[in-house]
Amino acid sequence: MKTSDLLSRSSFMKTVAGAMLASPFIAKNLHAAEPSKVLRHASFGASGQAWNDLEAIMSNPFVELVAVADVDLSKVAKVKQMYPNARIYQDYRQLLDKEGNNIDSVNVSVPDHMHAPIAYAAMQLGKHVYCEKPLAHDIYETRILANYAKEKKVITQMGIQIHSMKVYRQAVAIVRSGVIGKVKEVHTWSNKTWGARGAPPVSHAPIPSDLNWDLWLGTAQDRPYIPKYYHPGDWRRSLDFGTGTFGDMGCHIFDPVFSALALTSPLTVRSEGPAPDKWNWATNAVVKYVFPGTPFTADSTVAVTWYDGDQRPSKDIQDLIVSRKPKAQVSSVGAKTKPHSERELSQGSIIIGTAGVLHVPHVASPMLFPENKFSDYKLPEIKGTHHWSDWAEAIVGLPGKPEASFDYSGPLTEAVLLGSVAVRYPHTTLNWNSSALRFDNEIQANAFLRRTYRKGWEVAGL
Description:
The protein is an alpha/beta fold.
C-alpha cells in the first residue's frame, strides 16, 4: 500500500466535514424558516465514515438521534458518550422493526455490500435515506434503489459531499459557461490502490466478543473471520464487500464531469488494465468509456478515461496543464509553494475543450489552461452548501433540495460500476444497453450485474 493510502478515508472525511461545518453556509436555511418538525434519525454504522456522517447530520439543531445499529459493539462508545439517549442495536433489522414508528430518516454508512439491503429496507418503511457512495455494490441494486426511491417519494442523498462544495460547483459552472468551448474528451484518475493479489490468509482466530461476524457478512457468502483483514477498513479491496479504487473514488471524481456534461448512461466501456483475481480487485486500472454526446460536448459521443494506482494520462495530456509561470521562490520563512507543473497528479480530472483545458483537482480550486489565455479569468462566485444539511433540511420542509439524490447519484453510480464489470474482461469492448440493463455483446458479463445473496439473507424486491 502506498504512503498516500495511509491517510484513511475517515481521516480525510473529518477534514472535509470540518471545513464544511466551519462554513457560514451550513444549515443555510435555518434563519429563513422554522423546520416543520423534529427529524427523528437513526444511523447504520457508528464509527469511521458513519461517525462523520452522523456528526454532520446532527449539526442541525432540529435532528434527534433515536437509534444506532453497528455489528461491532466495540465501535459505539463515542455514540453512547455523545448521545446517551440513543438506543443501540447490533442488527439493522431489529432496529427497523422496533424503531420503525419512531424514526423519519436514516444514514447508511456501512461496507458497500450492505448498502442496498439496508437502504431498501428503510425505504420500504417510508424512511428518508442518506447513503454512502457507491450507492450499492452492484448495478442491479443501484437501479432498484433509484427507482424505488422515486416510487416511494422519499428524500435521498448519496455521500459524495464534494458535490456540494464550492470547488466542484465552480468546475461545473466553468464547463457549462462554454469558456473552454465544447468538450472533446476527459481524463480522470486516483492514486489509491484498493486492490490485492492472492487468497486470504488462513486464520483460526476467535471472533471478538463484541463483533457479530454473521451480521457483518450479511448478504455475502460465509467465510472465516480474519483479524484486521476485512474488518475494519480493508474490505474495499475484496470483490465481495467493496468495489475497489474505482467504486471508492470514482463516484467522487466522476461527479463534476458527470454533472458538468450532463452525461447519461455510457454506450461502451473497455478495460485496458489488469483483471481481478478470484478474491480481490486489481489496481492500476485503465477504463475507457464512450458516452452519448450532450449540448456540452464537441461530437455525438465523448470519451472519458479512468486511471488508478500508478496509471495516469499520457504525457501529452498531462502537458496540457503544465504551468509556464516561473518556479516559486523560497519565502522569508523558508516555505516553498510548488508551481502547478510540480504538483503531484494524485487525484482529479482533465477536461479538454475546443477552446481550452480545465484541470479539476480533488479537492482544490479548478484551473484553466493555457495560462496566458485565461490569465484574466475570474473563477465563478459560487457558494458551497452543506451536503448533509441540504438533505436534512429538505425533509423538514425548509427550502431547497439535495442535489445528489438517487435520481442523480443512481445513474452516476451505474456508470462507475460498469467499470468494475469491464475490468473482468480486459481488452474487450462491452456494449451497454441501459434500458434493458444488460450487455448486448458479451452475455457472460451480465452475471456480474447482480449478486446472489447468502441463504437466509435474501431481500424481497432485490
